[in-house]
């Protein structure tokens, strides 16, 4: 292959719409995507809902309703940045058969495979960062922002902490109703834009809820479809979940989530037309001059550079900042006695 073919190889566009299944928080679309043209971003958040109930006034008086904007919090942070590289040598393709064929693999196939590996690593890392922000209300990056952003401290909103009791005389779904009410109180009027709750559970907590006698009775009475108790490969491959009483319970599908034994996290979903309490701020490329100067902001950048012996090396980079404005919309649930 001519040298210029590697130099001009477009490895940004092929990944623009690429999707890797099995990343729950990404698949849910909870984190609304925003872009930043700069490496630092100023985050504003208006505390509280922005609509208010209006009172009647005297028609011919100067009395009016006050709908001024609520006090805002503001902070400036650098968007965390990740860069990766993988070198391809002639030893990687000479004498190596392409998988599923009887021919030798090509350098271009190896470059594409390396790009795929780096993209899959990006999606896994992004998912972990989403989970860290949502479940731990933190962004951890030793290279920026003094190492950590704690959204509970930034916005002065604390995550809920509840215990799900088990044993005689306890009803799991009734307790979860109480947990939901506590979150709704924090949400105020934002509950109007909430289609339901999601609860991501470890195996023990998931089983305790799924096999609770009340849940079993609802299944028996046809109030919960048994199909939702097992993997639905067409709708959600890789997830085991069921929906009942306004909550979708999902068995933790990801070992990268910081969910301990007997733990889970309950949080509300919001309609995309209204916006979410969680954001994914995507930043520009910084390592590659051409990509940085292009002004285009992408979730994932990949490109090929060559050394003096024309050996190609696949580089990728991305920068993102997950923001959770309301940690108090999330409750940590712990399985008790």
List the topology elements:
Layout: H1 3-7, H2 24-28, E1 31-35, E2 40-46, E3 72-78, E4 81-87, H3 107-136, E5 138-141, E6 147-150, H4 151-155, E7 160-164, H5 172-187, E8 196-201, H6 203-210, H7 213-220, E9 241-244, E10 247-251, E11 263-269, E12 278-282, H8 289-294, E13 301-306, E14 312-324, E15 331-335
Parallel strand pairs: 1-12, 7-15, 8-10
Antiparallel strand pairs: 2-3, 4-14, 5-6, 8-11, 9-10, 11-15, 12-14, 13-14
Describe this structure in words.
Helix content is 25%, strand content 27%. With 337 residues, it is α+β, with helices and mostly antiparallel strands. The protein is globular and about 75 Å long. The protein starts with a helix and ends with a strand. InterPro entries: Major_capsid_GpE. This is Major capsid protein.
Quick structural overview:
It contains 8 helices and 15 strands. The chain is of the alpha+beta class and 337 residues long. The chain folds into 2 domains: 184 residues, Major capsid protein gp5 (Major capsid protein gp5 fold, 2-Layer Sandwich); 127 residues, hypothetical protein PF0899 fold (2-Layer Sandwich), CATH 3.30.2320.
